[in-house]
Each structure stands twice: as C-alpha cells, then as structure tokens.
Amino acid sequence: MATMHYREIPGRSFLYWAGLAVCALLTVAGVGAGLYMRAEGHHVTGMNQQIVWGIEHVFAVFLIVAASGALNVASIASVFGRTIYKPLSRLSGLLAIALLIGGLWDLVLDLGRPGHVLDAIIYGNFRSIFAWNMYLYAGFLLITGFYLWFMMERRLNRYSHAMGVTAFLWRLTLTTGTGSIFGFLVSRSAYDTALLAPMFIIMSFAYGLATFLLILIGGFRALARPVGERIRGRLKILLTVFVAAVLYFAVVYNLTNLYMPGQRAFEGFVLLHGGVYTMLFWVGQILIGGVFPLVLLLGKKGASARTLVMASVAVLIGGLAQVYIIIVGAQAYPQQLFPGMIVHSSFYDGVVNPYIPGWPETTLAVSGVGLVGLIVLLAVRVLPFLPLSLADEVTDVHGHDQTVTAAGAAATP
Amino acid sequence: MKTRALVIAGLSVLIFFGAIWADHRGTVPVPLVPTAQGHCVLPTALMRREHMMLLRQVREQIVRDDKNDRTDRLTNCIACHVQTNSAGAPIPINQRGQFCAACHTYVGVHLDCFACHATVPQKAVSIANLMGTKGEQAAYSIPRVILQNAPASLSRGHS
Amino acid sequence: MTGDRTDLVSDAAPEEGHDPSRRRLFALAGGAVAAVLTPGVTLFARTLTVGSGKTPVRYGLLIDSTRCTQGCDACVTACQDYNGLSKKITPDTAQWIRKVTVTDPQTGLTRSFPVMCQHCAQATCVDVCPTGASYRRPDGIVLVDKHRCIGCRYCLMACPYKARSFVGRVVKDQKPWAPRGKGTAEACTMCVERVMDGKAPACVTACAERGKKAMVFGNLHDPKSEIAQKLAQFPTTTIRADLGLEPGVHYRGI
C-alpha cells in the first residue's frame, strides 16, 4: 500500500542556515525596535495623534488574515474530503500557527504598555470585538495545534476530521472578528460596513494561499523535493478563484461608496486624488494584486512553478497595498465631524493626514515576517511536516489509493 | 556525552560563583528611609508589607467605584512623605534616596506609579487637612485579613 | 499569605451594580428576551428605555456657538494649564480640547467653538476598549483608567470626535489631579477632580471669566439646573447626532 512519507528536513545546507540567520536577525531587530518604542514612547515612530495605527498594524493584520487563510489547504483536505490536498495539510497547519504568532508579535510589541497586555484577559471587556479577538487568536493556536497533533500522530488520526471541522469554523469566526475590528467602527468613512467581515475572509483565502504557495514551491525547490503538475494545477485554480473574489469585493465596496452621495468625497480620495493611496489602490491593489495575477493564471496553460510564484508574489504585494489602504488610508482621510462643511482646527481637523512609516515601526513590522520564517524553518527541521515528494505519481497513487482502500474496505465482509 | 558533562560542569561553576557573588551583594546597607511628617494610616510594619495592596484597593475605589472622598490616596501619601530641599522646594518622591525610591531600589522592585502620577505635591499640604477630623472619620478600614494575620503589637498604631 | 492577597483583591473588585456598561448589556439582553416572549410592542418599549434611562446625575456641557468667537482660546489654555498639557502644537501633541472653525460652503457662514470629549452615553471608546480601561462613570463622565490601559489605541480609532489622544512621550511634572503618562490613551476628563469639589471644569470657568460666556456646565438630569433650563429654552444639537451616541456635550447654533 502506498503511503505518503513525511520527513524532517536535514537543515545542514548553507541556504538553511542563512535563512535561519536572517529570520533570527529580523526577529531580534524587532525586539529592539519594540523596546526602543516602549522606552521612548511612540513619538519616535511616524505615527501621531492622527495616524494612530501604522505600518506594523498593516503587517500584523496582513499576517493574521493570511494565517487563517493558510489553514484553508488543510481544511479542503479534511473538511471537504479532497484527498489530493492531504499531503499539504501539515504544512498548512504549521504556516497558520506561524503566521498568527508573527501577526500577534507585531501587535503586542507595538502596544504603549506591552507589559500590561494580560490586563485584557484579567479585566476583559466583552463588548469589545478586540477583546473577543484575543480569545479567537488563542483558540486558533490551540485548535490548530491539536489539529496538527491529530494529523501527525497515527493513533489520533481518526479525530483529525472533527478537529479539522472545528478549526475551519473557528478560522471563519476569527477572520470575521478581524474584519469587524474595522467594520464595527462608525468613526471613519472607510469603515462602518458589514462588508468588511466577508471581505476579510475572502482576502484571507487569497493571501493565505499565496503565502502557502510561495513557501511550498520555494521550500521544495531548495530541498530538491518534487511538486507535481497535478497538485500545482489544483492550487492554481484555487488561487485564480480567490483573487477574482477579492477583486469582486473591492468593486462592490467601492461602487457602494461611490453611489452614496455622502461617501463620494471619500471615494474620490481613494480613486482619484488621494496621492499615495490612489496609487496604492490602482497600481498596488487592482493592477498588481488583481489584474496581473489573473491574466497570468488564466492566460497561461498549465501551472508552472514560475507562474505560481509570480502570481503569489503579486497577490502578496497587492494584499499589503489593500490592507495599507484599509488601515492607514482610512486614517489619512479626515474624520467627518461636520459632514459637508469646511473644517479647520489646531488638531488637524479637515486635512488629509500624512504618514511616513518610521524606522522603529517598520523594523517591528518586518520582524513579524522574520518570526514566521524562524518558526517555520525550525519546525520543519525538528518535526516531519513536509512530504518527501509531491510528484504526480505520488499524489496520484495517494489520491487513487485512498478511494480504492475505501471501496475495498466496504467490499470486504 | 562529553558535551553534556561540559555543560553541567560549566553551569555548576557558574552557580557556585554566582552564589558567592550574590552573598557578597547581600551586604548592601539597609537604606535610610526619610521619615514623614505625621502618623500613617497604618503601622509602619504593616505599610511596609502591604502598601501596594492598600494603594490598589483605594485606587479601585476612587477610580472605578466613584468614592472620591477617600483621603488615603497616593497624592496624600506623597504630600506627607515628601522631603524639601534647602530652598524649601519639594524633592520628587521617586528620586534617589527619597521615600519611595530608597526602598524600591534596595529591594529591586520596579516603581511604576510615577510614569503617570505627579512626584511632588502641588503645594504644601498641612497634615491637619489630610488626617484631620474628616480623615479620622473617613476611618480607614483596615482589611480584616491583614489585622487577623498581624502580630498583636501591630493593631492600629495611630489612633 | 497568598490566600490573604486573593481575599484583598476580591474586596477591591467593583461590584456588579457599579458597572453601568454591564448593566446596559443586561438591559439589552432583557430586551431581547422580552421581544421573544411578546413580540412587537414590548420590543419597542424596551428599545426606548435602553441607554436613556435617567440617572440622578449626568454631567454635561452646553456650548453656545453664537457667543463663541474665532480669536478666543481661553478654554483651551485653561485646560492646558490646569491639566499640565503641552502648549506646543505638533502632530503628536495631545489635545484634550481644541477650537474648531466650521464654514458652510453653501452659505459662507463661519462658526467657531471648542470640541472636546463628548462624554457619550453610548461611548464607542468604552465599547471597543479590550481591557475596560475606557469607562463611563455613573455621573456620565467618560474616563480612561490608565492602570488598565495597554496602549492599543483602538479608542483613538473608534472615536468619531477625534477626542482621544495617545501619550507618545515620557511625561514629567504632571499635576497631582491629572495623572498622565507615556503609552496610555487620554482625553478630556471634564476636570473630574474639580467637579467632585463642586466646581465647574477649568474651560467653563475660563470662558466665563476671560472668554465669551459661551459654556455652561451642569447636571443634565436636574431640571432645575442652569444647563437643563437653557437646553429647554432654545434648540440645540450634538455633533454627529446621527450616530446615536447620545453625547453629553450640546451645541447651540452649529
């Protein structure tokens, strides 16, 4: 009987150690940046009273959203029974955990008083979606951890389906929560819409899969383990659908705003004269993040590793641009205390607020990515997360074998 | 095997000399804590051990429970314990050698209050105002647990 | 000894009844139950009472923009002096109160008036705060309990009035009655220490003494108070009344 073989990576190559060193350095630099911000106060960053959440929040939200999306591959295998994805489940779970930790790392180190973060659990305000999110994050780590364990421990394999379903439902809730952090706010023109919750879910599908693809293809290439055409083809279709869906939501969101007279000024800011935000929208989010990958994925026959990597990188760049607009753009646009009026004050009312990410918060933002890399690199070395081969023969036989076994088992008296 | 033995030996040496060094550090003299101008709300020995619990309790009452008439609040602790320099100006209470800092430096406990709270009283406060008739009547309720566990000699010292 | 400490902590914990937000949540839950039992009428009756239930005291302000003038900033400087705030204006300076000039592009009419924390009955900052550091006192004043604030700045994101600030520097020389420090959120406290002493907030006093007598402070729920009587006299509104946050600061002529 053909079974899928997983094995720890040897981790002796120069590339491995170099990657590990870079990730570790980034992580340590992030600790430094966090401590510096804590000691000096946030005035050393590019943030101020107008732009209160900056680039580190963009990365944090991006990583957290991608985390729940990265789990999708495992969900498709265990919840929807597509056995071809099964060999990818472990990496999917690992990536989900690593990305979430990376995102939380950015969030916590950015706090004004990171040492008091446990107050959120000691006192907890259950009217706060932010407080709910902390429980959702903790639960996600726990559930995905168990899910991985049940997948990797043969004796517990039979529970992995139930755990997979739980994880899938949990991750939908989690991303709904993340989107609602913004969707629940009435204070800014860009928010105050239920659309953000489903939009974040679909964004998570795309960003998570793109991240997954990059690590899968890049990693397997470095390890000289094969990834077959068959599995690449499947992932390509998935990515195409997700990118198209993100684009669809972007169109609906902006069209709705455009149609409401009170929101047109804001929409004009995003689409026409918002400077960097307008550029990020058209070039970053729409062109690089949407149109380009779609053309690439739909236009080329087959699913070469090159196509997938290029599309994934584009999706990630577009995604970062999109989250940047959602978080920073929304704050740059003046709050509407007196809609329709011309407003002036010493507190920058009525003006578009500039933001240039400072070094401390940028270092912190990138350190989250470094931490993700660090966790993944260490984990695949000590535990068998990665299959030895994803070549067509293996995945074919594997998928085929599963059905035959099932039929065989049913037929056996 | 060899590596493990080496690590264990190294750690042992480190712990041994660390202990000697720590013992040597133990001879740091007990600080001279400046004395206050009046009687405290609780006996010194109790305050020394429990002041943070009391401050926290009073803080919750003032900030969260709207009991604004408590006189035994941090600002009044400072007003009473603050020292003045030769010019008669108050010296910040968290400055080296001052009431709060003297002990906290000695025991190595981080002092977080003064990230936000003022370290000097705004103007000289007469003790009568603080612990006068109103203060006595607002009668500091010593948490029963503390009194029960306190040595008999430590029952309310200031009344 | 450990056991004693636990006891002390539970002693210090606020009682359930003292937490108005929690009470409001219960009221909402009660409303939902009532709605299920007798749909229609009960739901309507319940909805009306939620949030607008009258407490004996609700402190508020009335700002008369027909009196306030563009050049005057007596309220702002008084606030800075009393609360020990910086007077240097940079993008990261905290501003608890600011003068806002509003011009109607259709008519050209310009008005000027101060904007500060609006001390909402349905305060978004209180709702979103993950630790409950943002809280509303039973007398309607909305404050930040800095002991609990972790500095996440979600309240700055959530406030539609731009009323919250974040302290991004080490603070020294605070006023004893206005503790404030790096890494925490802050806003107008309605000079709660002065109010507790029976005085009006610093801005209101300054406006009366050095300004245009455009501000009235008082108990909104006491029909005999000056503020309640004035509110009954002429039409007023609140900023972004459409959001339904029930601010405690009312404006005339905006």
Structural notes for this entry:
The complex is a heterotrimer of chains A (413), B (159) and C (254). Chain A is built from 14 helices and 1 strand. By secondary structure, chain A is mainly alpha-helical. Chain A has a single domain (14-402), classed as Formate dehydrogenase/DMSO reductase fold (Up-down Bundle), CATH 1.20.1630. The model of chain A is unreliable at 397-413 (pLDDT under 50). Chain B folds into 2 domains: 1-30; 36-154, no CATH class. Chain B is built from 7 helices and 2 strands; from the N terminus they run H-H-H-E-E-H-H-H-H. Mean pLDDT of chain B is 77; it is low at 124-159. By secondary structure, chain C is α+β, with helices and mostly antiparallel strands. Chains in contact: A-C, B-C. Chains A and C meet through helix 5, helix 6 and strand 1 of A and strand 2, helix 5, helix 6 and strand 6 of C. Strand 1 of chain A pairs antiparallel with strand 2 (97-103) of chain C, so a sheet runs across the interface.
Overall pLDDT score of chain B: 77
Q: What class do helices, strands and sheet pairing of chain B give?
A: mainly alpha
Q: What is the molecular shape of chain C? A: globular
- Please give the alpha-carbon distance between the first and last residues of chain B: 68 Å
**Helical stretch count of chain B?**
7
Question: Runs of chain B with pLDDT <50, length 5+?
Answer: 124-159
Q: If you average the pLDDT of chain C, what whole number results?
A: 84
CATH topology of the largest domain in chain C: Alpha-Beta Plaits
Q: Please estimate the helix content of chain B.
A: 40-55%
The secondary structure category of chain C is alpha+beta
Instruction: Supply Rg of chain B.
Output: 21 Å
What's the layout of helices and strands?
The complex is a heterotrimer of chains A (413), B (159) and C (254).
Chain A: H1 14-40, H2 55-70, H3 72-78, H4 89-110, H5 119-122, H6 129-152, H7 160-183, H8 196-223, H9 229-259, H10 264-273, H11 276-299, H12 305-332, E1 342-345, H13 359-382, H14 392-411
Helix pairs in contact in A: 1-13, 2-4, 2-7, 2-8, 2-12, 2-13, 3-4, 3-7, 4-6, 4-13, 6-7, 7-8, 8-9, 8-12, 9-10, 9-11, 9-12, 10-11, 11-12
Chain B: H1 2-25, H2 44-64, H3 74-81, E1 83-84, E2 90-91, H4 99-107, H5 127-131, H6 133-137, H7 144-149
Antiparallel strand pairs in B: 1-2
Chain C: H1 2-12, H2 20-37, H3 41-49, E1 59-64, H4 74-83, E2 97-103, E3 110-116, H5 124-128, E4 134-136, E5 142-144, H6 154-158, E6 165-166, E7 185-186, H7 192-196, H8 202-209, E8 215-219, H9 226-233, E9 249-252
Parallel strand pairs in C: 1-9
Antiparallel strand pairs in C: 1-8, 2-3, 4-5, 6-7
